[in-house]
Amino acid sequence: MTESREPNTEQQEEWQPKIIGFLCKWCSYAGADLAGGSRIPYPANIRIIRVPCSGRVNPLFVLKCLENGADGVLVSGCHPGDCHYSEGNYYARRKFAVFKKLLEYLGVDPRRFQVSWVSAAEGEKWAEIVKTVVEEVRAAGPNKQLSAPVDKCSGAPVKRKHLKND
Amino acid sequence: MIKRLQEKVGKLLREKKVALVIGYEMAGDGISTTPCFIEREDEVERLVWNEHCVYNLSRYLIETRELASSPSPKIGVVAKGCDVKSIIGLIQENQIKRDEVVIIGMECEGQFDVEGERQFKVEGLKLKDKDKDKDKEGKLLEKCKACEVHIPKVYDLLIKDDRNSGAPEPQSPEVNAYAQVEELEGKSQEERWQYWKKEFARCIKCYACRQVCPLCFCPQCIADQTLPQWISPSPSLKGNTTWNIVRAFHLAGRCIDCGECERACPMKIPLRKINKKLGKEIKEMFDYEAGLDSEAKPPLADFKLEDPEEFIR
Amino acid sequence: MRIGVFVCHCGTNISGTVDVAKVAEVARGMPRVKFATDYRYMCSEPGQNLIKDAVKKHNLDKIVVASCSPSLHERTFRKCVEGAGLNPYQMEMANIREQCSWVHHDKKEGTKKAIDLVKMAVAKVGKDVPLKRMRIPVEKKVLVIGGGIAGIQAAIDVSMAGFKVVLVEREPSVGGRMARFDKTFPTLDCAACILTPKMVTVAQNDNITLYTYSEVEEVSGYVGNFEVKIRKRARSVDMDKCTGCGICYGKCPTKVPSEFDMGLGKRKAIYVPFPQAVPNIPVIDRKNCIYFLREKCKICQKVCPPGAIDYEQEDEIIKEKFGAIIVATGFTLFDHSVYGEYGYGKFKDVVTGLHFERMANASGPTGGKIVRPSDGREAKDVVFIQCVGSRDEQKGLPYCSRLCCMYTAKQALLLKEHNSEAQAYVFYIDIRAAGKNYEEFVRRVQEEYGAVYLRGRVSRIFEKDDMLIVRGADTLSGAQIEIKADLVVLASGLIAQPDARKMAQMLGISYDKNNLFTEAHPKLAPVETVTAGIFLTGACQSPKDIPDTVATASAASVKAIGLIAPDELTLEPLVAKVNPDICSGCLACLQVCPFSAIEKEDVKDRLTKEMKIVAKVIESVCHGCGACSATCRVGAIDIAGFRDEEILAEVEAIT
């Protein structure tokens, strides 16, 4: 395998970690909204995807993010007992416990995949978590593990963007 | 043992208790075996039983389902202790019904590494010679060394080992089933990544691991789906790693460690080492072992309030 | 496919940190985007018209609105695009306000992120498919949980509209906290005089079924169709036979402290909590009854003329269906024993405001005399301390309990009315008397009733001889103050019920860090919860005085009535869907579904023509949480509005 080059085209710019967040719409997404409403600043590195529940998050989503070149993934849901659907976060907890162990065992940097419970009342906690996760992923550096946008046969970078424009 | 196996199967077919029996017959190389499907009483002599019956035949239960209706709704299957676990898994996940299967349980003292045997053959050595040279332990498959189910936990008929008649069930030697996993766990994150990177780089995405797995029964594997496309179809390392992670994760809490994936892998990627790790974690975290109880909830479709969550912020 | 992108300035809320014109410009170059523009207020009428006009003019079929959080305006814009003749579920929002402009200050960064968020929304909307709302029948009955003034008012209001109500109260009588009060501020109406008629109404109204001494045990189902299990605890008295004559509790030999009287008086083991109780039917307290403890006595049974005593009675489980639920579970008092300066709750003559209410009440344990619980002597010098627990982040509550200023002033007044020689001293931090005639009332208490108001905190209370010495500071004069008091009354803050969290979890509603139930929107949906069909009233949501409680009760009733009045309910189509062709029938989805919305179905496989087991979603029961979808290995079950394809499109848009 050839080590990947910088996954992004904008190489002249300083590398900024790119983090994708999957947030349950009842607690964590509302918590992030509250951070906004309370004007609590946090780094702009996170892109949030709104999902109904942390239990909706298929571990394969996480894998696809990392594979596609995200430097970190954060899944956030309601605290135990708070799930709007009463049990979704408990299933998520099991799935991600196993999935995290799997990634760690394969040698994937554990900082790249993180899970948090953030309630609708925890705007501050949300901001803190984003700060921490961004710090940690920054320290981990660009994701060169699962994201290897190099075609093994040709050795040339795969131009994913071109493939996508149907 | 073979004699009794043939008699019992003959009887099952004669009495129309089963439509078909899935078993082992000798392969063309004269040493290893190959799966066979016995539909008539006069075919029972094809059936064999030896140390080369490595294959997990439960996979064929799904594929022969449609043959079951005549003359009997049941299918017989020759199964080792480990194979029975995957049969339990299939019942647990509604792929087969318990009353549609006749489990012909085999007392098994362990299976030999076929690959090793075949090499001897190619080199012109006789099997007998090899038996003298090497002790039994040395030839055993890795999974058999820590076997705890020499006699299957569930069966309809049990064929006991002649040599052990009356003797107590053979005890497993004191082997740490997780020794290989633990060795890898002891390495640094970077070392682990380098190890797996090298292994996965060899993957040719032939999906033999999936085809042979008794629990990979999805009608259309997500690796074959295009909308959305979960696994890149190109043979790049990227897709390889993803596929191997997905495969392992989809077997988490379900894999019964028959080792067929690793055996079938033409690139000899140590897949059992991943499956085993997940089995170990699930046992530790959720106190669950796959293939023991067909009524149990699969661990990833279940939860306890006190499940571990130290990893959550 | 023709996508339109509409970027909102939100005044300067977004445009302050995001270059909205640039966002629109970049959006114009995104795949399938045929039109993009920015506007000052997209949610305003001209803003919405702009969208509608653009749909027509540019023949758009899918819309992205980049503005605030979808929790705020998703509905608005869905309606807007529906008005433009599009399917409302082909609209996606990019949250560039709460999750961008408000949290990032650098305009370059903010703009870059906003562009990414729009990219994601464009990618998602590209995968969106038209969805149709579902219609389901509605159960025309409301459950009210809690029989205090909030629940009573709500039940009456719903019944007045002609709908059936079930009111569940866990105490033996309705009335709640208000029934314990003496008089109410600022008009000094006697609490019982204004409450009792309402209590009687709930008992007599044909539309209201009252279950007292009962608790809600289980809530399942969904809006319009809640299924509720109510445990009617064994009263040990046959409610049909009992005439309420009271002979039983007259003769009962066991006396225990009365909860209703805050332990200041006694009640019997068979009792009604207070004379005006509704229903006026006693209950046997099995923990203290001699018969239940030692199988002897049975005096009540012997003396009961209609033979209503039934020691064998068992808890009854009632299962009923409701269209809506109103939660009115009320509050409890902050426990002041955490405060060393107030004696850790050890001094008998340091009491709470509720104790004072019971003493001031003519039918209370002291017959309306304000006395010292330690020796029964009438109290003359009484110190009131405000903000006990409230506004104390260290040991107490971060919030203001809102009514303590007023009830303290009222009690200072009542003290003087009960004993003209008495003197009230009030330690306060601030006086918060924002309410109709409230400020005037506090002033009157000070000026006409001579209550001495001291601005400052009490540093210590200790016993000397048989008096309490209250030491504190008057921060206005700067003087150290020591008052010899007969009695100290603490204005304890209001907190959530100890089991509030359990209640919230049972109902599936959210609560804040103080365990107070959270409204759907603090301003625009103050009595709704995020769970459709469940409404809030009273102090279970936040401390409220009686006028506010009654107002929220009526508000919640209107919301509930509005919900159950139509014969059918329209439900969001964001539910799970199974693709039976690739379903493996493992039914892990069925096992994880929290709502039992998945069932097993036998179908004929399209390819093999064999019968096989697959999963099937009961759409009206499905909440669309997606646990099934994330569990399905084969990807055979997906969530409308949050399909795998849509989510992965978002991922791919930015990676």
Structure write-up:
- The complex is a heterotrimer of chains A (166), B (313) and C (655).
- Chain A has 166 residues and is of the alpha/beta class.
- Helix content of chain A is 37%, strand content 14%.
- Chain A has one domain (17-140): 3-Layer(aba) Sandwich (Rossmann fold).
- Chain A has a 4-stranded parallel beta sheet, sandwiched between helices.
- Mean pLDDT of chain A is 85; it is low at 1-10 and 149-166.
- Chain B folds into 2 domains: 2-164, no CATH class; 179-301, no CATH class.
- Chain B has 313 residues and is of the alpha/beta class.
- The longest helix of chain B has 16 residues, at 271-286.
- With 655 residues, chain C is of the alpha/beta class.
- Chain C folds into 5 domains: 3-127, Rossmann fold (3-Layer(aba) Sandwich), CATH 3.40.50; 141-233 and 315-330 and 505-564, FAD/NAD(P)-binding domain; 247-303, no CATH class; 335-495, FAD/NAD(P)-binding domain (3-Layer(bba) Sandwich); 576-639, Alpha-Beta Plaits, CATH 3.30.70.20.
- Helices cover 28% and strands 25% of the residues of chain C.
- Chain C contains 18 helices and 34 strands.
- The longest helix of chain C has 21 residues, at 107-127.
- Chain C is globular, with a radius of gyration of 31 Å.
- Chains A and C meet through helix 1, strand 2, helix 2 and helix 3 of A and helix 4, helix 5, helix 17 and helix 18 of C.
Biggest sheet: strand arrangement of chain A: 2-1-3-4
- Taking all residues together, what is the mean pLDDT of chain C? 95
CATH class of chain A: Alpha Beta
How many extended strands of chain A?
Answer: 4
Largest binding interface between chains: A-C, 53 and 53 residues
* Domain module tally of chain A: 1
Largest sheet of chain C: 5 strands, parallel
Q: What is the third-level CATH name, the topology of chain A?
A: Rossmann fold
CATH architecture of the largest domain in chain C: 3-Layer(bba) Sandwich
| CATH H-level superfamily of the largest domain in chain C | FAD/NAD(P)-binding domain
Please identify the structural class of chain A as seen in this structure: alpha/beta
Helix content of chain A: 25-40%
Main sheet makeup of chain A: 4 strands, parallel
> What is the terminal separation of chain C in angstroms?
23 Å
